[in-house]
Amino acid sequence: MAVKNVLRMGEPCLLLKAAPVEQFDTPELHALIEDLEDTMLAQNGAGIAAPQIDVSLRVVIFGQLQSEQNPRYPDADIVPYTVLINPVLTPISTEMEDGWEGCLSVPGLRGIVPRYTKLHYRGFDQYGNEVDRLVEGFHARVVQHECDHLDGVLYPMRINDLSQFGYSDVFFPNQDIQDD
Ligand code: NI
Prior knowledge:
With about 180 residues, the chain is of the alpha+beta class. The chain has a single domain (about 10-170), classed as Peptide Deformylase (Alpha-Beta Complex), CATH 3.90.45.10. Helices cover about 20% and strands about 25% of the residues. The strands form two sheets. A five-stranded antiparallel sheet has the order 1-2-3-6-7, with helices on both faces. It has a three-stranded antiparallel sheet with strand order 4-5-8. The longest helix is centred in the first third of the chain and has 17 residues, at about 25-45. The two termini are about 20 Å apart. About 30% of the residues are buried. The site of nickel (II) ion has 5 residues, from loops.
């Protein structure tokens, strides 16, 4: 389909509560998934949510579309490519850990964000098949980040210590980190 323009922080669509998908396996939904895939690949994103391309629906995709490691997260575990629609997230412990995050809607910046370490998530793929997983670590972090987009939450809103929020090339001067 097409690489779409990614909305940047400040755009009203990024702050909305997105609407649930009512019908699966439709041409419109398949076209949306293709646009999200093309846009995520073009930007080397770890994931992307529909509101980031100005579609206020509860649809996210994340994980590895290509076989090689994501150059933005070279040390991260491989997360399987996943389409997740109308997600429900349930932390399975109160334990949280801090980790660096970036976002295609907040280009050039990184911040340390606390996330639940272990998570149960459920939802559907674009065909209406159920998705049901127990995950932890980076996989759990990515799901929490992407699903936050569906409730109008961007990762800077979750940063506890704003001294740990800044430009990627300042925090990581020797790493070839993408623009986002
Ligand atoms: Ni994001």
